[in-house]
Amino acid sequence: MDDCWTTVSEGLVLKNGTRLKYPINGFHALVISVGLLLLLLWLGVPLGSLFDLLLPLAVCATGLSFLLSFYLYISSFWAPPHALAPGGNTGNPLYDFFIGRELNPRIGNFDLKYFCELRPGLIGWVVVNLGMLMKEVELRDGASLAMLLVNGFQLLYVADALWNEEAVLTTMDIVHDGFGFMLAFGDLAWVPFAYSLQASFLVVHPVELGAAAATAIVLLNGIGYYIFRKSNSQKNVFRRDPKHPSVSSLETIATATGKRLLVSGWWGLVRHPNYLGDLLMALAWSLPCGFSHLLPYFYVGYFTVLLVHREARDERQCRAKYGQAWDAYCQRVPYRIFPYLY
């Protein structure tokens, strides 16, 4: 079902054999948001004031995350058993509140987890970054190359995520994880205010980049983006249609569940090539901030820990699900994220 704004896509098969439908219109939301931001700039609204409001806005977003999480936890007790998340019903209230009891909580046809996964956090990240850029313009009568690179790299990342929004329907967040405080806080507060750390750092600590350094950083981000996009696209196509011409010739391993595991292409290089691309981009976002302070590199360290932890969770789930087939895959593809290192 399509109209000029929205394509409706089906998610993966749920435990009860049904598929939920999702509107694919995140990129349109980004375009409208950017258009409104440009209108505000034309009207003279001081978007640079966002820099002075970062802390109260982050506190409000955190409070909203708690309120949403309490609603999700309480409403989950009215959800049917098949709608509960596999790992979110341990009986420990604190853990279940954190990880999320219900897999796909909805109000009518409005899917709360799917909406929060990409739209408010990612678009909010773009808004905060633009506010930091405008603050630098106010302070220094222009935007530095470092600030422009950070804004450009991260806008590309957000635009790519929303342009390829349908791919999120096959991710661990949507398919396996419940919607609790972990994802609510991450989507509404952590992403827009922690991921914009490099831009806010540059407001206070300006950096002058030379042409050679800027070229090297752009190249690093380009390599990371290419690996990230190609590997994610390959995985998404294979999960949805293993007979698709772009993946049908790839080598696979059969599993007892009837599914097949890719052991060639990007997923024959390392077990998580998308994480490798993600980390290369994370480094490229931090390098424009120079080396005078560790703060801009917090994101790289945090994201490395996050992805290594997520990779370990994925390993446990895949080993439990695929058994000997997963062990065979690990023998064929011994490196998890970094070739010849990890």
Keywords:
342 residues; mainly alpha; 2 domains; two-stranded antiparallel ribbon; 12 helices; endoplasmic reticulum; EC 1.3.1.70; sterol metabolism; oxidoreductase
Q: Explain this structure to me?
A:
The chain is mainly alpha-helical. The chain has 2 domains: 15-208, no CATH class; 209-342, no CATH class. It is built from 12 helices and 6 strands. It has helices at residues 26-42, 54-75, 93-99, 112-140, 145-163, 172-175, 181-194, 197-204, 211-240, 273-286, 298-322, 324-332; strands at 7-10, 21-24, 106-107, 110-111, 252-254, 260-262. The chain has a two-stranded antiparallel sheet with strand order 1-2. Strands 3-4 form a two-stranded antiparallel sheet. A hairpin with a 5-residue loop joins strand 5 (252-254) and strand 6 (260-262). Helix 2 (54-75) runs antiparallel to helix 7, helix 4 (112-140) packs antiparallel against helix 5 (145-163) and helix 5 packs antiparallel against helix 8. The model has no long low-confidence stretch (mean pLDDT 87). Belongs to the ERG4/ERG24 family. Keywords: Cholesterol biosynthesis, Cholesterol metabolism, Endoplasmic reticulum, Lipid biosynthesis, Lipid metabolism, Membrane, Oxidoreductase, Steroid biosynthesis, Steroid metabolism, Sterol biosynthesis, Sterol metabolism, Transmembrane, Transmembrane helix. It is an enzyme of class 1 (oxidoreductase). Catalyzes the reduction of the C14-unsaturated bond of lanosterol, as part of the metabolic pathway leading to cholesterol biosynthesis.
